[in-house]
Amino acid sequence: MNRLTIFVIFIYSLAHHFFTVYSDEKNLTDEFEDSYFGIFISPRINMSTKREIALYWNLKKYHRGDKLGLYTEKPRDNLKPIFIVEPNVPFGLAKTGVEADFIPSAKLNFTKQCLKYHVAWLRSNLIIKENCLKTEPTWMADMKCILGNHKMSEIFLPGTHNSAAYETSPSLIQDFFYNKYIITQDEDVLGQLIYGTRYLDIRVCYRPKEKIKWWGCHGLDTVPLQTIINDVKTFLNNTNELVIFDVQEFSSEFNEDPTAHDRLIQFLQAEFEKYAIPYLGWYQTLNNIWSHKMNLIICYDRFNFILKHNILWPSVRQQWGNVQSIDKLYQYLAKIEKKALSSITYQPRSAMAQMTPNPSYIVRNIFGGLRRMTEEVNPNITRWYNNLWQHSANIVSVDFIKYSGIVDIALKWNYKRFNSKKCLR
Ligand SMILES: *[C@@H]1O[C@H](CO)[C@@H](O)[C@H](O)[C@H]1NC(C)=O
Ligand SMILES: *[C@@H]1O[C@H](CO)[C@@H](O)[C@H](O)[C@H]1NC(C)=O
Ligand SMILES: *[C@@H]1O[C@H](CO)[C@@H](O)[C@H](O)[C@H]1NC(C)=O
Ligand SMILES: *[C@@H]1O[C@H](CO)[C@@H](O)[C@H](O)[C@H]1NC(C)=O
Ligand SMILES: CC(=O)N[C@H]1CO[C@H](CO)[C@@H](O)[C@@H]1O
Description:
Distance between the termini: 53 Å
Bound molecules: 2-acetamido-2-deoxy-beta-D-glucopyranose
């Protein structure tokens, strides 16, 4: 070969190299367009494990040999991951055997942050995309320009199913005996809000003979309503986020005592005096709601009381499939999301994204408890709402929200749904 040929080959390979890099990058954005990967914290508990970290991925066009790495600091090339997995299917989840630190909500603050654990997508051992376990305490206000002209019913909002049925340090024994079908969350309400939840599903039990009369409950009393109220106030004191506090269910004492509802409403009114936005109508835009300088929407699932008290809003329409299998849940949600695309209502709705154990299932413990059911359902929910129903989704309420990517996904699709040039910085 003469020098000229070598030179030509060299130039050609250089050009080829540049071209490849360019097209790779171009394909990379397409490739990750509707993908998602992130860190899930398992709600499962047993003698040896709790808060186990799982890596979730959903990337249709993954390449053979790609890897996902877990890190305890921001990943960089040459930093060795503490766990690594090679995805060999486009959608999956890998348990890592790593126990996540428990961070009480009081130790979190109101600035978005990554919490120790990071995940990176690696190709030829180079990082091509990353994510982390993070808080989202300010996402709504951060997106004010994008969301402000829209109504609650048009926005993709993360919710928690039975927000007051939480246990931050679960006991194995209690869980085995009676909490199996009671506990739905592993963060207190302040934690749920800081991680990005904006819709709270609140059920109230009235215990007139006890010292503490108002309880959050789910079959059994879980936490005093006062504790939940204080958490909501702490969050609202420190952010400019809008929160929906949806009082949805009442214990049998409400039927026995005709004054119970009025007492509860008085209690809520006094506690939330400086926070509750008087009823404006669900057709209002977020900017109009924000302009009242109070950021709490209290909904009440009894229409006659809404008419009497102007701090109460009509409740969110909860959409329950009441199903006992993943396939049935899929069919139900597919149906409601399809319908949502073609109907215009101002009242927000919440897809209740869980299976419902009926009494005979509970007695026979067919599901092994809500923690196990969540492990089955939430990865699918995350995928469906990222790939199929991202355009129609309104509120999506899940169990054990940290074992899902629903917050990341809601934020991503809100950007895509509404992003207008005037909001681009
Ligand atoms: C990028 O995508 C285009 C078409 O989608 C394809 O022809 C090309 O081979 C891809 N490049 C790489 C490096 O994968
Ligand atoms: C404990 O739960 C984890 C899942 O979180 C599982 O991998 C492990 O096998 C379980 N251990 C026992 C002793 O059941
Ligand atoms: C919030 O906590 C993180 C991590 O501890 C810290 O880096 C950040 O400065 C804190 N922000 C505020 C406003 O205190
Ligand atoms: C919220 O802020 C108000 C006014 O600054 C204060 O009086 C109240 O104690 C705070 N409440 C909570 C729960 O942080
Ligand atoms: C209906 C559906 O999509 N079910 C999927 C849920 O996720 C598991 C894997 O975790 C799949 O095997 C199911 O097909």
